TrEMBL record:
<dbReference type="InterPro" id="IPR035931">
    <property type="entry name" value="YlxR-like_sf"/>
</dbReference>
<dbReference type="InterPro" id="IPR037465">
    <property type="entry name" value="YlxR"/>
</dbReference>
<feature type="domain" description="YlxR">
    <location>
        <begin position="9"/>
        <end position="82"/>
    </location>
</feature>
<dbReference type="Pfam" id="PF04296">
    <property type="entry name" value="YlxR"/>
</dbReference>
<dbReference type="InterPro" id="IPR007393">
    <property type="entry name" value="YlxR_dom"/>
</dbReference>
<protein>
    <submittedName>
        <fullName>YlxR family protein</fullName>
    </submittedName>
</protein>
């Protein structure tokens, strides 16, 4: 039997590749809402980030979601993502 291929994604902050399940997915949907996607299946443009504190802090500092989604992302969205990620730890 063929072995199932493991999906690989790249962190938009540190540019390291890793298994999809080890990264968190942030999505921008058609309505412009930006949110964490714990199911990895929400419709919209996705960006992957490591869940560690360093990557999250650097994401906020460098405004990584602005680049990934090619739009201006409010600081409130970054704070919400940070609080949701630290709540999971």
């Amino acid at each position: 039997m063929k072995q199932k291929k493991v999906p690989i994604r790249k962190c938009i902050v540190c540019h390291e590749s890793g298994e999809k399940k080890n990264l968190i997915r942030i999505v921008k949907n058609k309505d412009g809402e930006i949110f964490l996607d714990p199911t990895y299946k929400a419709n919209g443009r996705g960006a992957y980030v490591h869940e560690d504190k360093e990557c999250i802090d650097k994401l906020i500092k460098t405004k990584g979601l602005d680049r990934a989604f090619k739009t201006k992302v409010d600081q409130e969205v970054y704070e919400k993502i940070k609080s949701e990620c630290t709540a999971n730890e």
